[in-house]
Q: What sequence folds into this?
């Protein structure tokens, strides 16, 4: 539909791409529409079937010098070349919604600590799991309480026991009829 918000935002995106291209000749320029299946296939090379994965997460209010030093050291000490640390910066409109609508509504960084390794006959992956745990534990003193429920593992009790998704009654979220509106992780 002409004049729609989606069309307007697409045009704004194209305008920004034109401005970026005017800065110089990029080494690679592959900006354009892509089908969902093609996008998934593109990501598949980075996470092939058969590789082993484990993840830990922490939410941080800021990237202080101590946090940056911790992240750099963790990157240098990766137990596998396939492991990664990914930062997601949540800010702007996503942080201005009502508290009952989201897990964390203030500006923050969600840190994904992803251990990835090729399976071996003689290894159980313990050194890779330990690397992820160690990074998570080293970020704990700097972390916000809790975490995103869908990004926490079943053994991350310290993070699942606190945070806004615990549904305190003062938020009106203790009504069982509203429980399906939130994601919970129940330790097994």
A:
């Amino acid at each position: 539909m002409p004049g729609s918000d989606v069309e307007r935002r697409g045009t704004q995106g194209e305008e920004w791409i034109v401005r970026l291209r005017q800065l110089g000749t990029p080494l690679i320029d592959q900006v354009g529409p892509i089908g969902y299946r093609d996008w998934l296939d593109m990501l598949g090379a980075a996470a092939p079937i058969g590789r082993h994965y484990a993840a830990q997460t922490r939410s941080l209010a800021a990237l202080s010098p101590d946090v940056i030093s911790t992240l750099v050291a963790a990157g240098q000490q990766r137990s596998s070349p396939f492991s990664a640390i990914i930062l997601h910066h949540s800010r702007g409109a996503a942080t201005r919604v009502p508290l009952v609508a989201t897990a964390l509504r203030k500006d923050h960084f969600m840190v994904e600590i992803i251990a990835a390794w090729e399976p071996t006959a003689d290894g159980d992956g313990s050194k890779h799991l330990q690397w992820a745990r160690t990074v998570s534990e080293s970020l704990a003193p700097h972390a916000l309480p809790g975490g995103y429920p869908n990004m926490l593992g079943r053994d991350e009790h310290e993070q699942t026991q606190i945070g806004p998704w615990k549904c305190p009654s003062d938020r009106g979220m203790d009504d069982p009829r509203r429980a399906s509106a939130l994601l919970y992780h129940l330790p097994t």
Summary: The helical segments are 5-21, 36-44, 65-76, 126-139, 157-160.
